[in-house]
C-alpha cells in the first residue's frame, strides 16, 4: 500500500494524486511529487513536536469498531525513529463514539494538518507526476478470467524485460526504463502470460526508503 504522505530528507514530498474515475483504472498509481524545502520539513517537525509525536507512545484502541485499518505515522528525526500506530483512528471517535481526544486526538490532529496540503514551506516547484527509476512488482497467478464483466486484456510478458514473473510472488524490482511504456498503457484488467502462466500484476513506484 502506498503512503498517503511521504516526505524525504531533501524536501521532496510524495502524495497520492487524483485517479481517473473509469473502470478498469490504470495499472499505475498516480504519485505526485513536489518540493516543500527545508522550511516545510521544519514546519512538519514543529507540528509533530507540538502534538507530542517526537516521543514513544502506545495508543488505546476502541473495542466497538471491527475491521478498521491502522493509521501509522513514522518520523525519523535527529537520529531517532518514532512509530505511532493507532487502530481505527478517526473512525467513530473514541470508544463511546465521541471525537478523538487525548493522545489519539493529538495524532489525528497531526495527520489532518500534515495531509491537508497547507504546511508552510518554500516550494521550488508545483506538484508533478513522479517518474521513478524503479518499479516494485507483485505477480499473482490467475487461473480463470471468465468472472470479469469486461473482457480482460491478455498480453505476453516481453522476453527482454529483466524480470521473471514467477520470481515476483511477493515483490521484485524492475528498472522503470524497461517497463514504463508497458505499464503506462496497462489497466487493472491487463494480464500477462509467461511460460504458459497468466499473472495479474500489482505495481507501485519505488519511493525513497522503499524497496522489496
Label the structural class: alpha+beta
CA radius of gyration is 20 Å
Strand content: 25-35%
Low-pLDDT residue spans: none
Q: Give the overall average pLDDT.
A: 92
SSE string, helix = H, strand = E?
EEEHEEHEEEEHEE
Strand order of the largest sheet: 8-10-11-7-9
Binned, the helix content reads 10-25%
Walk me through what this model shows.
- This protein is α+β, with helices and mostly antiparallel strands and 212 residues long.
- The chain has helices at residues 37-50, 102-114, 176-185; strands spanning 5-7, 12-16, 31-35, 70-77, 80-87, 128-129, 134-141, 153-156, 172-175, 190-194, 197-205.
- Strands 8-10-11-7-9 form a five-stranded mixed β-sheet. Strands 1-2-3-6 form a four-stranded antiparallel β-sheet, with no helix packed on it.
- It is globular.
How would you briefly describe this protein structure?
This protein is an alpha+beta fold. The chain has three helices and eleven strands, in the order βββαββαββββαββ. Strands 8-10-11-7-9 form a five-stranded mixed sheet.
Amino acid at each position: 500500500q502506498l503512503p498517503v504522505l511521504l516526505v524525504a530528507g531533501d524536501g521532496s514530498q510524495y502524495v497520492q494524486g487524483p485517479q481517473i474515475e473509469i473502470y478498469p483504472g490504470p495499472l499505475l498509481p498516480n504519485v505526485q511529487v513536489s518540493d516543500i524545502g527545508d522550511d516545510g520539513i521544519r514546519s512538519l517537525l514543529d507540528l509533530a513536536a507540538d502534538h507530542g509525536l517526537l516521543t514513544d507512545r502506545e495508543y488505546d484502541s476502541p473495542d466497538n469498531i471491527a475491521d478498521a485499518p491502522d493509521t501509522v505515522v513514522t518520523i525519523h528525526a535527529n537520529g531517532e525513529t518514532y512509530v505511532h500506530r493507532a487502530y481505527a483512528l478517526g473512525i467513530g471517535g473514541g470508544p463511546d463514539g465521541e471525537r478523538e481526544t487525548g493522545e489519539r486526538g493529538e495524532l489525528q490532529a497531526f495527520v489532518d494538518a500534515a495531509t491537508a496540503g497547507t504546511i508552510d514551506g518554500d516550494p521550488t516547484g508545483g506538484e508533478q507526476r513522479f517518474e521513478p527509476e524503479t518499479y516494485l512488482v507483485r505477480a499473482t497467478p490467475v487461473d480463470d478470467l471468465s468472472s470479469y464483466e469486461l473482457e480482460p486484456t491478455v498480453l505476453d510478458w516481453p522476453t527482454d524485460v529483466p524480470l521473471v514473473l514467477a520470481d515476483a510472488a511477493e515483490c521484485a524490482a524492475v528498472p522503470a526504463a524497461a517497463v514504463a511504456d508497458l505499464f503506462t498503457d496497462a489497466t487493472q484488467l491487463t494480464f500477462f502470460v509467461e511460460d504458459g502462466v497468466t499473472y495479474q500484476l500489482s505495481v507501485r513506484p519505488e519511493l525513497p526508503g522503499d524497496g522489496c
